[in-house]
């Protein structure tokens, strides 16, 4: 007799979904770590973005992935609760070792099907996938169908963002394929995206903060024109700029926006972007 599926959804704290959504939809979150002078803080549990802004630029912390033991413990508890299928979705392997650690932990759990998915994204790019998986699970889809559809969605998502300075990406080792070491001196603002390998690259370059916000809006309009989409606008301590981007996109008549996500990126993301990031995420909807 075929075993009845009981499906759990796991992600990490970089997904930037609201706590209310996480709790309401029974999503299990592995927190990354923020490290100041040897002291560890759990992302979004022990520390919030504002504390990091206040300590910058004098103190720039490091980040680390969830501990192997912690990941194993989460999977083991889910197994004890009767779950026999887990879809575990995480920040791009090109930006963090988290997905590799989760894959290693998953191999330690027997008699359970654990699908570990590299989102090739971060923030609400990852959040879109979690949201998709929740909706498919709640619609009664079987596990293999959920995995297949989430993978298809992953390949369609676009993420673009602008930072005030490249300093924090550089110091955190996340500079990737972003061009222009002299960009800060020349006030050149790259529009950053994520390639098929899940690494940052320069999508476009403009001069000045105002122009970069305008270009971000134009890029978004190009991708959402005459399509049904879910749309996200995120920021790190740049609410005024982000609100302006949000209003321009929500007031456009060129797209059918089904779901809109808005908010501030979490502490582990702030460490590598610094204050001043404004980003957009786009997910085409069937």
Explain the overall architecture:
There is one protein chain. By secondary structure, the protein is an alpha/beta fold. The protein has two domains: 7-31 and 66-154, 3-Layer(aba) Sandwich (Rossmann fold), CATH 3.40.50; 158-284, Hypothetical Protein Tm841, Chain: A,domain 3 (2-Layer Sandwich), CATH 3.30.1180.10. The chain is 37% helix and 27% strand. It has eleven helices and 13 strands. The chain has helices spanning 19-24, 49-55, 68-80, 98-106, 124-138, 143-154, 167-171, 183-186, 209-224, 239-250, 267-273, and strands at residues 7-12, 27-30, 33-36, 39-42, 62-64, 85-90, 113-118, 158-162, 188-194, 200-207, 228-235, 256-264, 278-284. The strands form three sheets. Strands 10-9-8-13-11-12 form a six-stranded mixed β-sheet, with helices on both faces. β6, α4 and β7 form a beta-alpha-beta unit. α2 packs parallel to α11, α5 (124-138) runs antiparallel to α6 (143-154) and α9 (209-224) packs parallel to α10 (239-250). The longest helix has 16 residues, at 209-224. The protein is globular, with a radius of gyration of 19 Å. The mean pLDDT is 92.
Shape: globular
Q: In the residues, how many domains can be counted?
A: 2
Largest sheet: spatial strand order: 10-9-8-13-11-12
Structural class: alpha/beta
Assess the beta-strand content as a share of residues.
25-35%
Please state the CA-atom Rg, rounded to the nearest Å: 19 Å
């Amino acid at each position: 007799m075929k075993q009845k599926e009981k499906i759990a959804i796991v992600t990490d704290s970089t997904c930037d979904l609201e706590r209310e959504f996480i709790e309401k939809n029974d999503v299990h979150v592995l927190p990354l770590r923020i490290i100041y002078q040897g002291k560890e803080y759990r992302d979004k549990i022990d520390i919030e973005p504002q504390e990091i802004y206040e300590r910058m630029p004098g103190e720039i912390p490091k980040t680390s992935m969830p501990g192997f033991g912690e990941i194993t413990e989460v999977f083991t508890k889910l197994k004890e609760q009767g779950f026999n299928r887990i879809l575990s979705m995480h920040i791009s392997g090109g930006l963090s070792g988290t997905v590799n650690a989760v894959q290693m932990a998953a191999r330690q759990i027997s008699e359970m099907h654990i699908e570990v998915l590299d989102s090739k994204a971060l923030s609400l790019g990852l959040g879109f996938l979690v949201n998709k998986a929740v909706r498919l699970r709640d619609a009664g889809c079987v596990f293999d169908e959920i995995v297949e559809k989430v993978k298809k969605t992953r390949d369609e998502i676009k993420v673009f963002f602008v930072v005030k300075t490249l300093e924090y990406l550089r110091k955190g080792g996340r500079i990737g394929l972003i061009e222009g070491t002299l960009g800060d001196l020349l006030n050149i603002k790259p529009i950053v995206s994520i390639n098929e390998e899940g690494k940052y690259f320069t999508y476009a370059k403009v001069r000045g903060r105002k122009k970069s916000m305008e270009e971000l809006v134009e890029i978004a309009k190009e991708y959402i024109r005459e399509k049904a989409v879910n749309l996200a606008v995120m920021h790190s301590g740049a609410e005024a700029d982000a609100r302006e981007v949000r209003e321009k996109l929500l007031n456009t008549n060129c797209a059918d926006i089904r779901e809109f996500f808005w908010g501030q990126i979490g502490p582990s993301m702030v460490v590598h972007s610094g204050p001043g990031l404004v980003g957009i995420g786009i997910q085409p909807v069937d």
